[in-house]
Amino acid sequence: MTILRRTLLAGAAAVTALGMATAAGAQDDKTKVGFVFVGPVGDGGWTYEHNQGRLAVEEEFGDQVETVFVENVAEGPDSERVMTQMALNGADLIFTTSFGYMDPTINVAKKFPNVKFEHATGYKTAENVSTYSARFYEGRAIQGLIAGSMTESNIIGYIGSFPIPEVIRGINSAYIQAKKVNPDVQFKIVWVYTWFDPAKEADAAKVLIEQGADVVLQHTDSTAPQAAAQNAGGVYTFGQASDMYEYAPEPRISSIIDNWAPYYIERTKAVMDGTWESVSRWDGIGAGMVGIGEITSAVPDDVKAAALEMKEKIASGEMHPFTGPLKKQDGSDWLAEGETADDGTLAGMNFYVEGIEGEIPQ
Amino acid sequence: MIVLEKRPQASQLWSLATPVVAVLATMVFGGLLFALLGTQPVEAIRTIFWDPLFGEFAFYYRPQLLVKGAPLVLIAIGLSLGFKAGIWNIGAEGQYIIGALTGAGVGLAFYPLEAWYIFPLMVIAGALGGWAWAMIPGVLKVRFGTNEILVSLMLVYVAEQLLASMSLGLLKNPQGFGFPGSRNLNEYESANSWINQNAGLHWGVVAATIAVIFAYVLLNRHMLGFHIRLTGDAPRAARFAGVSPGRLVLFCLGASGMLAGLAGLFEVAGPAGQVSIDFNTGYGFTAIIVAFLGRLHPIGILLAGLLMALTYIGGEIAQSQMGLPAAAIQVFQGMLLFFLLALDLLTNYRIRLKSREVA
Predict the structure, then answer these.
(1) Which residues in chain A have Cβ-Cβ distances shorter than 8 Å to B62?
(2) In terms of pLDDT, which residue wins out, A16 or B247?
(3) What residue of A is the nearest CA neighbor of B167?
(4) Over 50: is that where the pLDDT of B298 sits?
(5) Largest CA distance in chain A
(6) Do B276 and A193 touch (CB under 8 A)?
(7) Chain A residues within 8 A of B323 when measuring between CB atoms
(8) Of B188, B169, B178, B158, which is closest to residue B268 (Cα–Cα)?
């Protein structure tokens, strides 16, 4: 018991010391914004786009801000140290851009009540911790429509990263629309358990292509699947997180682009103005957080028109990608005719919709 | 012409001096690399080596050295026993993962019961888990003569698959909204390895210290330690001295697996807090570098572990303060091993100038 009490006392003293250190660091008038990246800024996907957002913040505010970043930060204790280090060095606002940074962000935020934190794709908030994510599934619906129309083998390959709600939501959303335009469509899903590993992603793409897939969707961040599709020939792909336009007009026929710039600028401004509040933001195509990359000439005009029409309808709120009637994979009812999915269910989605084969790995 | 001449006996002086010279050479060539990247080389080196120890925020970084160094030292000590005897356990990363899984599994099985005996049970489970995982290559080697390097390395990937499966299934936090990852053990008093979080002190640090002392005594004062050294230096002589090679293989692999398993348990119950898909961050592989950097000597490993931790922490500071790319830091760490191995040549060979004509 004594050990415990001593721990608590020493802990309290050190936290005070940390708090004082930030007060000292925050004296200069530039707003300092930190970014913690899970991959390299040159990944051409997820981290690349977050870094574009960082550059947009610099562009927007010029001399008024200073941005810092650390790339390739492992999720877990390493990220906690990187965040603490940024806060100690006077960061006013820190964006932590991977799901696995969730608990570390909360831990560090507790020690630095005056620093604002923004955690991407998580669900834990605090007085000085916001969460933000994009409704990528809206883009997936459009991908599903195009993929379902383009496939001739009726087999669509899907490279999944981790079987988490975010990814499962994307699979369901794409499948629902693909099935609507092509009732014979079948999804083959491969899990690679990584967000960024060109070798593994390329292998997964090759396996899917060998199994007859002529459209490959990916929820991983490198361009390796695009390259694999190009080598195979006659296979279509979509850019993920970033436009990946270097593979257009074929194999890349469109893309989902994460556009974090408006959000990063807005939140930095809020810190500068002193109006920052903890929020849980989940924006989609309408707010401009999810962009649809150019649909190339490889796609027939009528398919392109249908895809663009869907984009408009989703943006305006006229259409929701998850609208009933929909059943779960096991045949049980999920959404009644005309009913749309609520955000709570979507956020924790851990089931496939009816028609998708295979099981979600447990 | 420059020729290498084998020394009749390994040079004591060079054996001690190479790590120091390697570090200095890394600083020089690393500085050159940083200069080519357009950063101030002296400032970069100072940021990496000086700031974490004596900079403005050293009060935070010094404890972090313990957090980052403890698993490295703990694993490297175990590996060094085998390496000394020519038994190559390359799969410490896998044993680290399994130790974390078994240890955390025991802890989570008791949740939410609070009792004093939970943490000790977790420690035992973690040690057993790592030991058992290392016994697979051990038994296969002794029984069937398989290559322990290959088998132990391959088992790392098996362990990673198990880790993913556990994070998504059996050990998944029931209150985690379907997201992967276990409950956070830092929020579970009885299953927590922290002693004093702000001082960077957890039971893994204590265990690493004990392991250093234990290994030192074993190697210098104990018959088994003599057998390990003898097997490495002169396998035939060891056979004549009555050393059973099979038992030695099992002991060395078992001990290193156990220590790696312990490192995993202390990490998951402390700094990491939870079992997650990306729980392992390469400690098991980095520890191989640490073991060699420390000359397979317990005290050397202790220092090498701290040095390695320093380059990690300093490297992160250099990234965010000076905008150095992560890859440059990795090259920098790679240089350290490269120079160490290159300079090692001088321990066993001396350079002789055969002819004076060449200037």
Answers:
(1) none
(2) B247
(3) A362
(4) yes
(5) 75
(6) no
(7) 68
(8) B188
A81 closest CB neighbour out of B186, B196, B313? B313
Bond before A325 cis per omega within 30 degrees: yes
pLDDT at A2: 36
The ranges assigned to domains in chain A are 16-134, 136-257+291-347
Amino acid at B133: W
CA distance B285 to chain A (A): 15
| Contact (CB<8Å) A361/B165 | yes
Structure tokens of A329? 């994979």
Q: Please, what sign has the CA dihedral across residues A102, A104, A107, A111?
A: negative
- Cβ–Cβ under 8 Å, residues A71 and A41: yes
Q: Please give the class, per CATH, of domain A136-257+291-347.
A: alpha beta
pLDDT in tens, B143-194: 999 999 999 999 999 999 999 999 988 998 888 777 788 999 988 989 999 9
Q: Token pair for residue A227?
A: 């390259």
Of A117, A126, A116, A111, the C-alpha closest to A15 is A111
The single-letter code of the amino acid at A78 is D
Where residue A235 falls among pLDDT bands split at 50, 70, 90? very high
Pairing, β B194-196 against β B2-6: unpaired
User: How far, in Å, CA of A47 to CA of A69, rounded?
Assistant: 11
Mean pLDDT of all residues belonging to chain A: 90
More confident residue, A73 or B340: A73
Q: Which fold has domain A16-134?
A: Rossmann fold (3.40.50)
Interface contact A7-B67, CB threshold 8 A? no
Those residues with Cβ within 8 angstroms of residue B266's Cβ, 6 or more apart along the chain or in another chain: B70, B71, B74, B126, B193, B202, B203, B204, B207
Nearest CB to B195: which of A3, A165, A193?
A3
Same fold for the domain at A16-134 and the one at A136-257+291-347? yes
Please say if the pLDDT value at position B295 is more than 90. Answer: no
Size of interface A-B (CB pairs under 8 A): 116
> How many angstroms separate the CA atoms of A350 and A108, rounded?
29
Asked if B198 lies within 8 A of A71 by C-beta distance, the reply is no
Report residue B333's pLDDT band, with 50, 70 and 90 as the boundaries.
confident
